[in-house]
Write a structure and sequence with these properties.
mainly alpha, 145 residues, 6 helices, elongated, 49% helix, two-stranded antiparallel sheet
Length: 145
Amino acid sequence: MKISTKGRYALRMLADLAEHRNDGYIALKDIAKRQDISKKYLEQIVSILNRPDILKTNRGYQGGYMLAQTPDKYTVADVLRITEGGLAPVSCLEHEENTCERKIYCSTLFVWEGLNKVINEYLDSITLQDIIERKKDMGNFDYVI
């Protein structure tokens, strides 16, 4: 499985909004500049993420975007499921029920089911709050000589 640029940039955009959540509505041009992502590309991502449970939007002067919920409510898995269409490593696991006609005889199905479980559990365990806290920790270097 390979995460697309769209998925990676969406995660960076939402992490940026989480980090600057106390600044009110954030313009895409500001996110684009901080994240070194084209504003046009962010506009495409916003169209995918523009749902009431993900983003709040304000048009006009002082307009922009903000998270609809606190950063601890957004998991990496949720963001990637929206932008990537799912996290399944193989097509037969893309839906809740595996309807593959070979599933009974598939000697490798357990491998893909295990990988799917690990991917989902791991990405469901990381929130935007975790990302911004980690970023803060990365910036706190103590140099002692």
